[in-house]
Amino acid sequence: MQDFILGSRPEIYFGSGYVKDMVSALGRYGNRFLLVFGKKSVFENGAYGRITSAIKEKNLEWEELWGVEPNPQVGKVREGIDLVRRKGIDCVLGIGGGSVLDTVKAIAVGVPYHGDVWDFFSGKSKPKEMLPYGCVVTTVGSGSEVSRGCVLSNGDIKRSQSHDFFRPKFSLVDLKAMECLSTDQILPGCMDILVHVTERYFSDTPHIEYTDALCLVTVKHIVRNMKRIKRHEEWEEAVKEIAYLSIIAQEGYLASGRRTDGACHQLEHVLSGVYGVSHTVGIALVFFNWARKVSAYKREKFEKLFESMFGKEVEAEEGIKLLSAFYDEMGLTCQYGIKGDPKKAAQNLAEVCVEECGRSTVGNFMELDQETIAGIYAECLKGNGGRFE
Fold it and tell me: Domain 11-178 belongs to what topology?
């Protein structure tokens, strides 16, 4: 087990009944706020009305920034930074899913910085201060409400950075908004949660049996609740548990004292940066094909994972078959088609992935060279479960 530091955690308001409490927390940071949104779904799920009504009751003022897209772009962040500076904003609040929350994180560290915010993602600089910000989470999956990570795109270049300044001051988990999500919206997000856990579980650090066990029981309950959601069994309670598991996956304890992997997210960021696919679809795609490749070499850890997922002892090869069947049951896909030659596309993606990683291999649990990465991408891109344009 390695030495570690657990940094400060955001204040979590778990449930829509805490809107007024969250707005009271917002008021601790000033009187003028920027609310950041993606699309108009916040009207449909009621989040907009709940939040703005509570802000009005406190006689607070706000501006609005709309139009955050999946795989958020640095241009929208720059727009937000400019708005904050011009309007004298005291605090920023993101209302939506992971893309909105990443945008807010980048705005918050960009406002007090005298250079361009992309410097934090190009490696030119590191955050030294931040504008206070909070999150209202209306979807499941990213765990951005507690994580110290932030993902941002500049054209088709997509990069992630990790820093304690990327943890919000407070977050509200809006369960009423999540009740408006469809099953097909929730299940890919669940795969993002699962991969957050497995990237912590797949570690070569010795003497980490306790956190291994925590990872495996978390995986067990993610799969259990995915099945409940798919079958509409106690659907609301299952979604509530998934929202909680999303927090557990990202708040830091599962990663403490161990070297984590991260290969699946590194591969996915390149894939979605180039093809524009949503992160939740991309991470499910990459995880299956990564697992199929790596499980042949790291059998024991995979067999324990599959036992937690499927409730029985299986060898690695049988576990991959069960994983494939699970994808079918959940309506997920493990292969996509593209225009053009998938092998050539895979080689190009692998070259970008290695370059972005800044070393000759990607991942820690099993170090993947460029040829192996190209093979994983090729498997991702040779099917007909959907199409990338």
Answer: Rossmann fold (3.40.50)
